[in-house]
Amino acid sequence: xxxxxxxxxxxxxxxxxxxxxxxxxxxxxxxxxxxxxxxxxxxxxxxxxxxxxxxxxxxxxxxxxxxxxxxxxxxxxxxxxxxxxxxxxxxxxxxxxxxxxxxxxxxxxxxxxxxxxxxxxxxxxxxxxxxxxxxxxxxxxxxxxxxxxxxxxxxxxxxxxxxxxxxxxxxxxxxxxxxxxxxxxxxxxxxxxxxxxxxxxxxxxxxxxxxxxxxxxxxxxxxxxxxxxxxxxxxxxxxxxxxxxxxxxxxxxxxxxxxxxxxxxxxxxxxxxxxxxxxxxxxxxxxxxxxxxxxxxxxxxxxxxxxxxxxxxxxxxxxxxxxxxxxxxxxxxxxxxxxxxxxxxxxxxxxxxxxxxxxxxxx
Length: 363
Fold this sequence. Notes:
alpha+beta, translocase, cell membrane, 6-stranded mixed β-sheet, 8 helices, 2 domains, molybdate ion transmembrane transporter activity, ABC-type transporter activity
């Protein structure tokens, strides 16, 4: 069923850079939650984002944000009049201002005028309440990016655009910032367009994924559906894995574990800093999933489930094979060796036990 246009981001754009690169994209996506743009380097993700923002003047076509036209064949809304906020890889904070002053500057420019005191919830949501009197040089990379995100959403945009906001951070800082972006997506009503190479980022924050290749939309849908249709194995995409939605059902304080209830059963993960009843998304790394033909006994692996193999992807030049298993309608990827694939004589339709290492799970 076609959604009401007032709740859609409707984009159809073309851009030709004299034979060097061509963008030809048509997407309709809900103006809600997080839409992730994925694809290899040079696929057109950032170009598409810049075109929607009005920064690529040569892009022609139409952009409809809800009931507001940003661009048509005869009209282009000036960049400064588009209700958007843009978060880049590098947080461009004013170095001579404190965090508080940086945020107040954003509030002054916001259409919906408010004071910093009225933004207590958002400040707490991003965990920057203890940083307000510091200057940017006194912050870590992750802290600076969280302030940049706060400054962007303080403007109350109709669309928040994030262009690989974690790309400049090391692994530790990425893991520090990612939960705040998840919380932002979960607790605000600002739709987000998020560009990333990372399967893990897409799995943890996306409501839907648009996969670009050579300037065109190759496929779109839930992250697991996209991973099923597209063979993403290049190192630039990071760790291969699966996205699983669930809710926290129990905190096992004695063991510092958290029980998450999903469609296919309960999953035990390291403490996830979420309240019982709160929704969460898990990223299950494919190389931390093992398969066996019988139920594991006397094993250190706490998460064990039975399912059926639906797809096997292997290449003769690789030592590894990717196995897709259906667990009560949820598709889980396992990455195993070709040797194991041959030894167990795995094939589509076969029933297998899936074991997931708790220590490798992230939420």
